[in-house]
Amino acid sequence: MIRVESLSRIYPATAKSVAVTALKDVDIAVRRGEIYGVIGRSGAGKSTLLRAVNGLERPTSGRVLVDGVDIGALTDSDLRAERRKIGMIFQHFNLLSSRTAYDNVALPLEFAGVDRAVIRPRVEALLDLVGLSDKRDRYPVELSGGQKQRVGIARALATEPKVLLSDEATSALDPETTRSILALLAEINRTLGVTIMLITHEMAVVKDVATRVGVMEDGLLIEEGDVYDVVTRPRTDTARSFLGTLAGREIPPGLAARLRPSPEGTTTALIRLGFTGSRSTEPVISRLSRELGLDVAVLQGQVDEIGGRPFGTLIVSLPNAALADGSAERFLAHYDVATERLGHVA
Amino acid sequence: MSPELLRLILAATLDTLYMVAVSGLIGTLVGGPLGVFLATSGRGELFAAPTTNRVLGVVVNATRSTPFIILVVAIIPFTRLIAGTSIGTTAAIVPLTIAAAPFIARIVEAAIREVDQGLIEASQAMGATPFQIVRKVLVPEALPGITLGLTLTVVSLLANSAMVGAVGGGGLGDLGIRYGYQRFMPEVMAMVVLVLVVLVQGVQSLGETLAKRVNRRLRRP
């Protein structure tokens, strides 16, 4: 549905600043009907990437195809027509303070020159879809952040787009509201079949709704794959660092303060275990303890699901010796458990 | 105070209102679009025309930095061209308008620049044309600021209109100078000042009420 082909964007040098490369040779293919997440820190280029999809950014080289249409090759008026097929929602909602919820949702239809008699039922159906029928005549100032984003989503869907772009749509919201907005996006994706491309700096967002994820750093797409694979077996340090914020992956703070990189002067080692697939329910820890005769302490743990597939994370401590000869890690690898050394404590 | 004097004050008040209303209206018709253009024609903006923008900016500044009384005298030939005469109340409308238009332009420009840039981006993402963005987004969103700015304009027009007596324009200022000052009639001067004070108060309250009504950023009880 969206094809990004060796896309680069360089902001030329000005009198005040040097040239900045926001995107370097990025290739992405977003499939029809999927939710694709792009994760990266601020300045990684994800915002530039998203804006290239609806032509708000002109690529320096490469191209973007949306449903087969080369966005960069369109005339101004063709681009406007194409943008009606691509909805967009924003971190700060970007609602007009001078218009009610109803009139905000009607705005893109007014831009498109749609007849008032057609606008009315469509806007009312959309407000109903996002659960805001009772806020129809409220101005944005009278709405909560979550309600404003619902208006934003209804507005983005008004012209019945095939693609929805989400620019950090939940970053200004509290965790509970974030979950409800993500659930709404997932529902829209499922019921209307709208392809969604979202950018975020939170792995929890990707984990909750996306089917695939791309990790960006310094304008490059450095890792890509199914969300399950990237979350359970990240290949880059950047991807791993985003996982750090997920529940159950954090080292308890008291322990983190005492953590040392080298085993010298310490007795135990901390490792993080990742359980995936069918073996995630096997009694691996008790076998590890019994068969290798090790004292194992569980310090932190979480079992979660991504798209209905379970995965577990455990932080455990082992005697240093079991790591030094590699026996524990060999044993765990046999059970398909991913291991990551975290450090040592006295 | 004699009925004669009261009639004079009433006539002068009507003259003042006439000059302010007509110059305010024409000034808005010229200055409004000019302000919209100034706010949207910078580099990379909706109607990008940086050179024209800069030239218009200089013209606007030049007009605004000329003291009103000098502007009145300096443009007498132009006034004669437009109004057929350079003397009288109607003729005074020409310099009043020329002083008001750039003032309004700057006010409209400032109000529009206050509108969140994210709204322009969102509108473009919805497929809006630049004209639609001005008409349906920028102007409605800037309306509270524009309303307050126009109130300010009317107040400064009231002040300027008191100076056009110098070219034979009528109105309250002219009455105050000729009767109150030159004929030593302090009661007329007091009356003129009183009427002006009431007018300014009235305009200010009306403007603030209107601005509050169009401002949807305020929570209503």
Automatic annotation (TrEMBL), chain A:
User: What is a single Pfam family found in this protein's UniProt entry?
Assistant: NIL
A molecular function (GO) held by this record is: ATP binding
Cellular component GO terms, alphabetically?
plasma membrane
Arranged from A to Z, the UniProt key words for this protein are: Amino-acid transport, ATP-binding, Cell membrane, Membrane, Nucleotide-binding, Translocase, Transport
Entry keyword Kinase: no
Identify the PROSITE patterns for this entry. Answer: ABC_TRANSPORTER_1, ABC_TRANSPORTER_2
The ABC transporter domain sits at 2-243
Q: Some GO term, biological process aspect, for this entry: which one? A: amino acid transport
What InterPro entries does this protein's entry cite? AAA+_ATPase (IPR003593), ABC_transporter-like_ATP-bd (IPR003439), ABC_transporter-like_CS (IPR017871), ACT-like_dom_sf (IPR045865), MetN_ABC (IPR041701), MetN_ABC_transporter-like (IPR050086), NIL_domain (IPR018449), P-loop_NTPase (IPR027417)
Q: Which domain of life is it from?
A: Bacteria
Q: Which family does it belong to?
A: Belongs to the ABC transporter superfamily.
**What does the protein in this record do?**
Part of the ABC transporter FtsEX involved in cellular division. Important for assembly or stability of the septal ring.
Q: What is this protein called?
A: Cell division ATP-binding protein FtsE
Organism equals: Siculibacillus lacustris
Automatic annotation (TrEMBL), chain B:
Instruction: Report any one BP term from Gene Ontology.
Output: D-methionine transmembrane transport
One GO cellular component, as annotated: plasma membrane
Which UniProt keywords are given for this protein, alphabetically ordered?
A: Cell membrane, Membrane, Transmembrane, Transmembrane helix, Transport
Q: Which residues form a coiled coil?
A: none
Is Transport given among the entry's keywords?
Answer: yes
Membrane-topology descriptor: Multi-pass membrane protein
Transmembrane feature ranges: 20-42, 54-76, 82-105, 145-168, 188-211
Q: Where in the cell is it found?
A: Cell membrane
Q: Name one Pfam family in it.
A: BPD_transp_1
Q: Which InterPro entries match?
A: AA_ABC_Transporter_Permease, MetI-like, MetI-like_sf
Domain named ABC transmembrane type-1: which ranges? 13-204
SUPFAM superfamilies attached here?
MetI-like
- Spell out the CDD domains in the cross-references: TM_PBP2
Family classification: Belongs to the binding-protein-dependent transport system permease family. CysTW subfamily.
- Name of the molecule in the record: ABC transporter permease
What organism is recorded for this protein?
A: Siculibacillus lacustris
